[in-house]
Amino acid sequence: MNTTLSLDWHSQADSLVIDGRAFVDGRRVTGRLSRQTVSPVDGRVLAELTACGSADVDVAVAAARRAFPAWSRVGAEPRKGVLLELAALMERHAEELALLETLDSGKPILQTTTVDVPGAISTLRWYAEAADKQAGELPAVPPGATALVTREPLGVVAAIVPWNFPLEIAVWKLAPALAAGNTLVLKPAEQTSLSVLRLAELAAEAGLPDGVLNVVTGSGREVGAALAHHMDVDALAFTGSTAVSRTLLEASGRSNLKRLSLEAGGKSSNIVFADTEDLAAAAAKAAFGAFYNQGQVCSANSRILVQREVHDEFAALLTAAAAGYAPADPLAGLDGNGALISSTHADDVERWIVRGRTEGEVLFGGERREIRGSDAYLEPTLLGGLPADHDVHREEIFGPVAVLQAFDSEAEAVRLANATDYGLAASVWTSNLSRAHRVAGELLAGTVSVNTVDALGNTTPFGGFKQSGFGRDLSLHAFDNYTAPKTTWIQFG
Ligand code: NAD
Question: Which residues pair with 186 in a beta bridge?
Fold first, then answer.
């Protein structure tokens, strides 16, 4: 596939050759079973995906274990070199990766070409560059001794990732894990394995030694659970639901106490105070925060809390801004949303809309759409008029459905925002600097965005408080998930 931006994504999609076999010990492998993977874009069968079992997981973990000594000892500079080469190869294959991601997940091609793939490449480069810039510590110890504190890789890391940002979240895990000298067995979500499988192939082409990065495909219940219970997996990095996070904690306890980092669900609030300088800008960002990526974002700002004085004005502005997230053919190269991950998931999300309609009101949207023969498309939807204790304010919907609520005082806004078991993110809009600091300080969330939504970058840690999990992706803090401090104390006096 060429590297210039294509105009006809449909014909590119028709001629794309897709390999759905797992990738273990440097090559493609088939398991005993396979299953077809289907695109939510138009229902086409994309590939036969290997359905790995626990025996395949054993083989992948053994390959990663064999590769660990050499990869961990080769030194940071060669590791950086291979990862930078992989980033360059991803750039050369960016169009193909974006097309795979769109077909597999339903995201618009405009998003995968401008955000998902470039974002993954940028994070990979960031950790490649960080690999040889880590230093140890020489802490103060009594005279007659020297102590060195070094950061050691943990060994074989398993990573289990979800379907909403398949390539980006996989890179959030694999880049720091590999840069620090670990080897990896990665399990993508069964709905979206194709871009990561291609990435593993490119990694081999970039010179990554066999066994350093393995991709085992298949169901969470089989492959994910086999990794979680494995006695030779040293650490497990997870992004997904809070429900699965609980099973992973249990599996670690029942097996080898493998170290866990868990990025779980969210139900994030966006608080708009009446003193917001530019209410239209706040509404535009609120629409992005709630509906971007079809609302399938763990940190989606799906609870919009607006101070009563500006409630009606803001609701009108938000209605206009949400029109930009109407679903369209993901391969048409247009702005707006694509398909949800599947028709079944759209059914689940639609049930919330039905509840909103009967128990409160639908302020805009609410309709299912059929595009290219697939009914996995939903309009951006705003619910309102629901009581403060309604499930809709606490439970994750994971689709393009937000709920609007009015508040009167700062204290009430903070109380409503914190009234959830989750604590991944929150946003605050105000022109009062003191209020911004005060409210940000009170919110129980891993990231608080002020006068923007969902602020995120390679340099800042991302993760949750409360039942949104623990451990951080991105930034130098991510190395904590994949390394342990080691003290070497030398007595000479
Ligand atoms: P999920 O938890 O069902 O699945 C996530 C991954 O776990 C998949 O690869 C799945 O196959 C695997 N899995 C499922 N059951 C398993 C088991 N018993 N043992 C081991 N692995 C298992 O979540 P999902 O539906 O794929 O994704 C949506 C969820 O992910 C939402 O709750 C969302 O908030 C969360 N998410 C969180 C973040 C974050 O950074 N906090 C980012 C994206 C998504």
Answer: 159, 215
9-264+468-487: CATH, from 3.90.1180.10, 3.90.190.10, 3.30.420.10, 3.40.605.10 = 3.40.605.10
Tokens of 395: 């439970």
Amino acid at 305: L
> Residue 239 C-alpha to ligand 1 middle, in angstroms?
6
The domain locations on the chain are 9-264+468-487, 269-457
What whole-number percentage of the chain has pLDDT above 70? 99
Q: What is the DSSP string of 165-219?
A: SHHHHHHHHHHHHHHTT-EEEEE--TTS-HHHHHHHHHHHHTTPPTTSEEE--S-
Is 263 catalytic? The answer is yes
Q: Over 70: is that where the pLDDT of 375 sits?
A: yes
Q: Which CATH number fits domain 269-457: 3.30.565.10, 2.30.30.320, 3.30.70.1350, 3.40.309.10?
A: 3.40.309.10
Contact call for residues 197 and 104 (beta carbons, < 8 A): no
* pLDDT tens, position by position, 392-446: 999 999 999 999 999 999 999 999 999 999 999 999 999 999 999 999 999 999 9
> Which is nearest to 417 in space by CA: 246, 267, 239?
267
Q: Is 211 in the pocket of ligand 1 (CB under 6 A)?
A: no
Is 222 marked active-site?
Answer: no
Q: What is the pLDDT of residue 32?
A: 85
Measured between alpha carbons, how far is residue 16 from residues 22, 111, 339 in Å? 18, 19, 20
Q: What is the pTM of this model?
A: 0.97
328-341 tens-digit pLDDT: 999 999 999 999 99
The rounded distance, in Å, linking the Cα atoms of 149 and 134 is 12
- Do the two domains 9-264+468-487 and 269-457 of this chain adopt the same fold? no
Catalytic one among 101, 190, 222, 263? 263
- Tokens for 272, please give them: 């708009």
3-state secondary structure of 439: helix
In contact, 158 and 184? CB cutoff 8 Å: yes
| Ligand 1 contacts CB of residue 54 (under 6 A) | no
Q: Are 165 and 173 in contact (CB under 8 A)?
A: no
pLDDT 10s digits, 45-84: 999 999 999 999 999 999 999 999 999 999 999 999 999 9
Alpha-carbon gap, residue 417 to 402, rounded angstroms = 14
Tell me the CA–centroid distance for residue 11 and ligand 1, in Å. 32
